[in-house]
Amino acid sequence: MNPLVRFVARYHRWLPLGLFLLVASVAALIGSIATAAGLATWYPALRKPAWTPPAWIFAPVWTALYILMSVAAWRVWRQAAPREARRTFAWFAAQLSLNALWSVLFFGLQRPGAALVEGIVLWLLLVAMLNRFWRTDRVAGMLWVPYVAWVGFAMLLNAALWRLN
Predict the structure, then answer these.
(1) Is 114 left (phi over 0), alpha (psi -120 to 50) or beta?
(2) Could you tell me where the beta strands, DSSP code E, fall in 20-88?
(3) Mean of the pLDDT values across residues 32-46?
(4) pLDDT digits (tens, 9 = 90+) for 78-136
(5) What is the spatial distance between Cα 90 and Cα 88, in angstroms, rounded to a whole number?
(6) Which long-range contacts (CB under 8 A, 24 or more apart) does 140-148 make?
């Protein structure tokens, strides 16, 4: 038996999780690149509310969230019929695109108002996904909750930064 075929046969259950993690990593990389320039110069100069988290917290939180969201989507994908599985992956890719776009708008283009509007759309999509995930697989739903909460918090912070600046 071909080694690649043997590998796929042995790990077929886990390979899609790798794909979900890879797609999330690409979105994270795009967001990081967009964030880097604004984080170095523009963001530190903004007036911030007292409840703004320290800058060092964002990287570990986002790393954990990308892992949790990938596992959640993978769990739902595994339980779905083929058509629903494609829809799960499409929703996952769509929310990641919006996630990366927020970084481009906020940090890259330095447009907090536009980022806020886009972020609210992202949050609404995440809530819809939470509802679907929760109904399909409670564990997936629980894994999705921190992401929805963090994006909600980020939009409150985004609104405060927009108002203050």
Answers:
(1) alpha
(2) none
(3) 93
(4) 998 888 888 999 999 999 999 999 999 999 999 999 999 999 999 999 999 999 999 99
(5) 5
(6) 140/71, 140/72, 140/73, 140/75, 140/76, 141/72, 143/68, 143/69, 143/71, 143/72, 143/75, 144/68, 144/69, 144/72, 146/64, 146/65, 146/68, 147/65, 147/68, 147/69, 147/72, 148/123
